[in-house]
Amino acid sequence: QVQLVESGGGLVQAGGSLRLSCAASGRTFINYAMGWFRQAPGKEREFLAAISGSGSGTYYAESVKGRFTISRDNAKRTVYLQMNSLKPEDTAVYYCAADPMGPSWQTGTYDYWGQGTQVTVSS
């Protein structure tokens, strides 16, 4: 079992920045690729970014490439999502997830999910 807890969400003005954190406990953190997803009301869960267990490989959705950066600190068992140049359409609940098989954009490959943190971007 892996337990994931997101934090760092909140209300920010358009053009601002936030850094989300996801703290993991349970099984060996480095064995899991980590991903960030988001879900807006009435929409499907959307892939944002993923990172390999070692941190050497990162992958991004086109919609956030150049604005969002995923990183991880394996010593702290934490994965981060730095979000810059935020837009109102970035408003959603943001989730982190753990995948034992490697980085993926597909929600179905992730075994463990956090409870989510709300990000609201005002115009």
Strand coverage percent: over 45%
Return the structural class. Answer: mainly beta
Low-confidence stretches: none
Shape: globular
Task: Describe the protein in words.
By secondary structure, this protein is mainly beta. Helices cover 0% and strands 51% of the residues. The protein has strands at residues 2-7, 10-13, 18-26, 33-39, 46-51, 58-60, 68-73, 78-83, 92-99, 112-113, 117-122. Strands 2, 4, 5, 6, 9, 10 and 11 form a seven-stranded mixed beta sheet that branches. The protein has a four-stranded antiparallel beta sheet with strand order 1-3-8-7, with no helix packed on it. The N and C termini lie far apart (40 Å). The mean pLDDT is 96.
What are the salient characteristics of this protein?
globular, about 120 residues, about 50% strand
Briefly say what this structure is:
The chain has 123 residues and is mainly beta. The chain has strands at residues 2-7, 10-13, 18-26, 33-39, 46-51, 58-60, 68-73, 78-83, 92-99, 112-113, 117-122.
